[in-house]
Amino acid sequence: xxxxxxxxxxxxxxxxxxxxxxxxxxxxxxxxxxxxxxxxxxxxxxxxxxxxxxxxxxxxxxxxxxxxxxxxxxxxxxxxxxxxxxxxxxxxxxxxxxxxxxxxxxxxxxxxxxxxxxxxxxxxxxxxxxxxxxxxxxxxxxxxxxxxxxxxxxxxxxxxxxxxxxxxxxxxxxxxxxxxxxxxxxxxxxxxxxxxxxxxxxxxxxxxxxxxxxxxxxxxxxxxxxx
Length: 227
Description:
The protein folds into two domains: 4-180, no CATH class; 193-226. A two-stranded antiparallel ribbon has the order 1-2. 23% of the residues are buried. It is built from seven helices and two strands, in the order αβαβααααα. By secondary structure, the chain is mainly alpha-helical. The protein is elongated, with a radius of gyration of 34 Å. The protein has helices at residues 4-33, 44-48, 65-86, 97-128, 134-180, 203-218, 220-226; strands at 34-36, 54-56. The chain starts with a helix and ends with a helix.
């Protein structure tokens, strides 16, 4: 059985590699495929479509795939940092981050699969419509790294699923061992040990019973009513 330290170390390594590849994709896009004059413009049309002063060489159409790639990378970086931080929390039997890691990794796997498929389709179309240039190698590098990112997030999803399964198995083993020894996780709520505060051993109840006995002995009317 894989130890918790090994699972945590593997998650750390995957998160770091995911961050490195995402940064590499953004660098290739910025240096080789996205050419614009001036600074970024926050207008939706500037991010969605190309123009004479905003050229994206990832595809041959008017869709700004470079901006789309930046959005994909930003989401992936945020998810990788989140996954990296969750590894710092204790991995006990009631660890709440296991489900978060699983759903996050599954979403990012699908996220990068869609991005890689889009980049591949547009990149191949652009390569076929233009002579061999340096941009072709850059486009190939982008979609190849995108597929690698998808594989890494798939590994993170599988690792998160295994971690969740391992936590459930450990919890079930703990409950079974507790049942075998006669103890229970809810034993403190079902403890029947007599105490001064329980009904069976209440000092108040004992005093009241003693008072009723003394009264019945001294009061004939009370004795008749009890009968």
